[in-house]
Amino acid sequence: MRWAGQRIDAETPGTLPGLGAIAGLVRSVTTPEFQGITFHEVLARSALNSVPGSALPFNWTVNPYRGCTHACRYCFARPTHAYLELDTGQDFDRQIVVKTNVADVLRRELARPSWSREPVALGTNTDPYQRAEGRYRLMPGIIDALASSGTPLSILTKGTLLRRDLPLLTEAAADVPVGVAVSLALGDEVLRRRLEPGVPSVRGRLDFIRAIRDAGLPCGVMVAPVLPWLTDSTEQLDQLLASLSTAGATGVTPLVLHLRPGVKEWFMKWLAYDHPALVGRYESLYAHGAYAAPSYQRAFDAKVRPLLRKHGFGGRSSHRSEPIRGMHRPSPPQDPLF
């Protein structure tokens, strides 16, 4: 397998297969503070990932981690672990790849004359504020690298650990547009613990939204994924949107669950255990692909639109700041570092 020869607490020169010929040292670490979790520390050769031609509002991302201790049963990023010859279930939750030098590499890439300061998104794959960030503290360096280079940035997270970096983000917003969005789709705390065991509580994330707003930053919310017949009733959506409005969310984007290969198997295993009566309905709903049947999507849109308007989210979702006038740092030097 690709990870053969790796030893816990050992440093091995060479490369980590599956991540693109990364030169340098590799160290696999377990600690008492993260029971059952192994961190695989790597030296990345690149930090910026290009995603051109997509329907997304950005062409570049940075992912400091692969795998995620949030352990969300439905996480769409699970198939990325298969490339490492790790499974997309428990290995994705417990075998975390950490790009320890990501901030330094990012600074070099942003200093290239060819860099055009396009927006960069974080949290598009695995969460940059998962529990591992409390140990490795990679995000402060990433935020500073982007802001000091004049590059707009946005962050999507379920991790309330971002609260630690709110002063950095408000400072960055003086120079560049900064977007912050929180993922919160499950208002039922019991269901949250079953589906998202490593994610902060519902109340914790509502308080987190308030903290972001108190810091002077806009905060959009991704109500994603909405789970058919589990979290999609009018009453459930109404209550969740009311809570988000009270917390100060500046926009809401609801998205129905999608189940790609490598994710579907893990989610359906959970569904069969916790809600066996729904298995047949889900198999029918997702019989023709990763997305729910168009008839369900249309019915959901018709249901959620008036609720969004009711709670003040009828317009375009807003989660991005604008630079604060009169508080700009000097322009960074343009000489490339390599």
How is this fold's topology laid out?
Elements: E1 11-13, E2 25-29, E3 38-42, E4 48-50, E5 60-62, E6 65-66, H1 90-94, E7 95-99, H2 102-110, E8 120-122, H3 132-136, H4 139-148, E9 153-157, H5 166-172, E10 178-183, H6 189-195, H7 202-214, E11 220-226, H8 234-247, E12 251-256, H9 264-274, H10 279-285, H11 294-310
Parallel strand pairs: 3-7, 5-8, 8-9, 9-10, 10-11, 11-12
Antiparallel strand pairs: 1-2, 2-3, 4-5, 6-7
Structure report:
It is a single chain. With 338 residues, the protein is an alpha/beta fold. 31% of the residues lie in helices and 16% in strands. The protein has 11 helices and 12 strands. The chain has helices at residues 90-94, 102-110, 132-136, 139-148, 166-172, 189-195, 202-214, 234-247, 264-274, 279-285, 294-310, and strands at residues 11-13, 25-29, 38-42, 48-50, 60-62, 65-66, 95-99, 120-122, 153-157, 178-183, 220-226, 251-256. The strands form 2 sheets. Strands 4-5-8-9-10-11-12 form a 7-stranded mixed sheet. α5 (166-172) links the parallel β9 and β10. α2 (102-110) packs parallel to α4. The longest helix is centred in the C-terminal third of the chain and has 17 residues, at 294-310. The chain starts with 10 loop residues before the first strand and ends in a 28-residue tail after the last helix. The model is unreliable at 1-25 and 321-338 (pLDDT under 50).
